Inverse folding.
């Protein structure tokens, strides 16, 4: 089965300029591409700073939680696109020209019951809704932290894409939700067969 993906290759002036202004320009262009139907938006190399062969590039490098990666993550979710772009990335004191790719998904699992009902964390009350989006922490930041403690590299592909699977020990898992959303007790007879 074939699938068509609409890709936008964004062109920007490469002249060096402050990051805030360049991100605002990238946001306008990525928004226009998304509005035109792009599913993957690819920004140019060093889109956030401009392009220069200068030592200043090292001072402009950002960590993964810096303003550019943060904007990319938020823009991908807001525009519902995959967003890619290259920047000078600061990682453990080293600077790399790195391509980052952010997916639009914010983890919000859907629990399917045998009777056909489906619930997300949003449907399960404000406390559980506040847990939405914690997947990247569990499957990303925590693994990075553990790899750092051990002093070893880690390549992580866990949590990429969508899956549908039975929940192991579904009843036990479901019981942990009940104190936070007691009205879910009506699903208790089906909880052992949740997906």
């Amino acid at each position: 089965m074939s699938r068509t993906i609409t890709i936008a290759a964004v062109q920007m002036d490469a002249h060096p300029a402050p990051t805030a202004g360049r991100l605002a320009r990238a946001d306008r262009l990525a928004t226009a591409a998304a509005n035109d139907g792009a599913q993957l938006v690819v920004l140019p190399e060093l889109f956030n700073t401009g392009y220069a062969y200068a030592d200043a590039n090292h001072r402009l490098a950002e960590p993964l939680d810096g303003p550019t990666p943060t904007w990319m993550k938020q823009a991908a979710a807001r525009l519902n696109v995959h967003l890619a772009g290259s920047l000078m990335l600061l990682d453990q004191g080293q600077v790399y020209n790195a391509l980052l790719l952010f997916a639009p998904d914010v983890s919000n699992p859907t629990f399917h019951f045998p009777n056909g009902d489906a619930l997300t964390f949003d449907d399960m009350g404000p406390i559980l809704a506040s847990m939405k989006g914690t997947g990247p922490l569990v499957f990303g930041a925590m693994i990075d932290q553990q790899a750092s403690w051990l002093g070893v590299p880690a390549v992580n592909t866990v949590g990429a894409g969508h899956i549908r699977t039975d929940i192991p020990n579904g009843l036990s898992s479901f019981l942990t939700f009940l104190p936070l959303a007691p009205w879910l007790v009506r699903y208790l007879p089906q909880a052992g067969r949740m997906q």
